[in-house]
Specification:
Blueprint lengths: L3 H20 L13 H16 L12 H44 L9 H23 L9 H10 L5 H19 L2 H10 L1 E2 L7 H4 L4 E6 L6 H10 L4 E5 L2 H13 L4 E4 L4 E2 L8 E5 L8 E7 L11 H10 L1 E9 L4 H11 L2 E6 L6 E3 L15 E4 L3 H15 L2 E5 L5 H12 L5 E6 L13 E4 L4 E2 L4 E2 L3 H9 L13 E5 L2 H12 L8 E3 L3 H8 L8 H11 L1 E2 L3 E3 L3 H9 L7 H8 L8 H16 L32 H22 L9 H21 L7 H12 L11 H7 L27 H4 L1
Parallel strand pairs: 1-19, 2-8, 2-9, 3-6, 3-7, 4-6, 7-8, 10-17, 11-13, 11-14, 12-13, 14-17, 18-20
Antiparallel strand pairs: 4-5, 15-16
Helix pairs in contact: 3-4, 3-6, 4-6, 5-6, 14-23, 15-16, 19-20, 21-22, 22-23
Length: 763
Amino acid sequence: MNCPAQAVASRAGPLQICRRSLSTTLQVARKAGGGGPKQLRLRAAHRMKARFMPALEHVPGTDALPQADEAAKAAREKRFSTQRKQFHEIFQSKVYSRFKSVLRHLKSLQSTDEGTGTDELSKHARSFDKELRRAFELGENRLTSLEENPVYAKLRDAYFHPKPETLKTQIHYAFQSHMAAARFTPAIRNTMKQLVDMRFPHEWFPATRAMQRTIHVHVGPTNSGKTYNALKALENANSGVYAGPLRLLATEVYQRLMAKGHACSLITGEEVRIPDNTDTYFASCTVEMTPLNSIYDVAVIDEIQMIDDDERGNAWSSALLGVQAKEVHVGGEERTVALIQALCAGIGDKCIVHHYKRLSPLATMKTSINNDFNKLQKGDAIVSFSRLAIHALKKNIEEWTGRRCAIIYGNLPPEVRVQQAALFNDPNNDYDFVVASDAIGMGLNLEIRRVIFETVVKFDGRSRRSPTIARSSKSAAEQAASGAAETERLGLVTTMERSDLRMVHQAFKSRVEDIRKASIYPAAGIVEKFASFYPPGTSLSYILRRVQKEATVGPRYRLDISRTVLEIADILQELPLSIYDRLTFCFLPVAIRVPESVGCLKALAQAVAENTAGNLLEIKEIPLEYLDLKLEDFQGTGRDVNPLTYLAKLEALHVTINQYLWLSFRYAGVFRSQAMALHVRSLVEKRLVDALERMNFASGELVSRRRRGRLAALPYDPRLDDMDDAELEEKWTPVESRGNLWSRRTPTGEGAQARPRSVVGII
C-alpha cells in the first residue's frame, strides 16, 4: 500500500505535466541552422518525451533476440525446403503418370493408321522425357518462372487448375509441340506463319471492300432512342437486314417489319422462315446468321459492344466488316466509338457518330432495403447471379408481400422470358416485382423503376468474384428507368444489404474502359489448311491452340478461341469427323455443365460421323421422357425430388432440342425430324411457363449465402483467421486491386493459427 506522500506525488505528477504542457505550448520559431518548422517540432517532442516519461529499464535476455530470430528463420527455411521437396516429388510423379497416359493414347492410334509411326513416336517420347527432366532440375533449383523455365511453369499452372484433366491436356499439347518442332523445317514454318497472317481480316470480304459504305454509330444508354432511330432507317429502306444478339430480338423485329407491310425472313440458328410469294424481302436474324453474300440498302447491327466478347465477338466483327449494305447502322454503348472509328478509317468507310442521352435520370440510393421485403415497391427488379437464389427470392417475396413476382434468367427459353416480361409490364395484374439475372436488359423492355442487387458477388465458372460488378451493375441498372422515360421518373439503384451498397456506389463512380480490340476467329478454310501440316488424328484443340499462338493479328483485333470451343473439340476427338464437321460442332449451342446436353452432343456427332438417320425418336440421349414428368412428383426437399430438379430437367430437354434443330439446318439429310422437334420445343416451353406459375420453392438462407459468397470472393489475408463472421461482415470492403482489404485496422488475437501457405508460394 502506498504511503500518503507517494500518493500525493502520484496524483501531483499528471497535474504537473498538464500544467506544464499548457504553459509550454510550442512556439515554432526559425533559428539559424535550426532547420524548418517540422524539424523544430520533432526536436521539441523528443525533449518533452525525455523529460516527462521514465527511461525504459533494460530487459534481461534481449541481447539474444537477434540470435533467436536467426534460428527461427533457419527453421522456417528448413521447413519450406522440406515442403518444396515433397511438392516436387508429387508434382513430378503426376506429370509422368499423365505423360504415360498420353503415350498410350497416341500408340492406340497406330491401329487406325491415324498417328505417327511407333518408332518415331518412341524417339520423340525419349527426347521429350529429357526436356521434362531438365525442366524439373531447374525447378529444384528454384528456377520456376515462365521466362526461365516455361515447360515447368505451364505444367505447374495446369497442375493447380480446378479441372483435373487440365494437366493431361497441357502435357499432350507440350508433347505435340515438341514433335512439331522436330518435324517442320524453317520453310514449312514460314509457310504456316503466312497462312495464319490475320492482320487484315477485312480482306476476307472482297465484295464488301468494293462498296463505299457509310457507318452510322448510335451510342447511348438503354432506351435513349438509339435502336429506335436505327430501325426507323431500316423501315424506310427498300431492302435491309437486322442482326441482333438474341432470337427473341430477331423475332421482334421480324414481326415489326411484317406489321409495317414489308416481306421479311427470319433466320436464326434454330429457325428459318422465308416468304413464299416474293424473292425480294428484308431479313431479320441473329448476328451469327447474318447473310454476307446479299446486297442491301440498310443494315442494322444491334448491341455492337458484343464485338469484344470472347465467345461470340467474332460474329459482330464479321457482320461489321462483311455486310454488303450502303448504310450500316450499329447501336450500342459509348465505349465502342473509338474502335469503330479506327476500323472505318482502316477500311475506307465513312463513319458518323450519333450520341444519345438518357431521357430520365438514374441514381444510386444512399440506403439499402436491409433485407426488408416490406420496403419493396411496385416496379422493383431484384437482380441476383444465382439461379437457386432467384427462385428462393421469388418464393420469399411472394410469401412476405402477398404479391406475385415474375422471373427471368438465361436458362429460360426466350419465349418464356418474353411471357414473364409481359406479366411484369402489365399494370392490371398483381405481378408487381421481377427477379432476374444480370442479363435482365438484354433483349427485353421492362417497366422497371428501381433495381435492387441481391448480392455483388458472381461465380464465373471457377470461383466467386466481385471485380466485374461495375459492368454488371451498370448494364442491369440501365433498365431502371426504361419505363420511366416518357414520364421522366427517377430511376434508382440499391442493394439488399448495407455492406454491398459501397461496391455499387464505386461501380457508378468508375468509368468502364473503352473497347480497344475486336474479336476475330480463323475461317474454317484457314484451320483446314493449317491442320494439313499435322499427322491425321491430331486433336483439333491442339491445332486451334497452335493457330492462336502462331497467328499474327493487327493492333485493332484479338484472336479468340474460347474455352468452350476447345472443350467441345476434346469431347468429339475420338469420333471420325472431318475438320470442317468438327468446327461446325464447336459452334453448336451446348451447355457444357449439363450432362444431357453433352450426351446429346456426342450422339448427334456420332450420327454425322456414321451418316446414319438421325430421327428424333431414335436418339435416346435426347431425354424426351422428361415430357412425362409431373410437377406433383417433385414436391420433396431432397436433391432429386425438389421442384428445382423438375425445372432443370425441362431446361435440359429444351437445350437438347435446340441442338437438334440447329444441326437440322446444317445436316438436313441426317436430322430430318425438324417439325417434330419444333412441336416438342413448344410443349417444353408451355410446361416451363406452367411450372413457374405453380412451383413452390424452399426459402433457403439467403443472408448466410450472401455472406459466404462475399467471404469466398476475398483474397486470403492472415487477419481473417482471428475474426468471426460478424467482424468479417462489418469490415468487408470489396476491392478490385491488390492491397489493403480493410477500411480500418483489424484486431489480431493471441495464439492465432496462421493458415498454411499455398504450395505455389513455396515454389
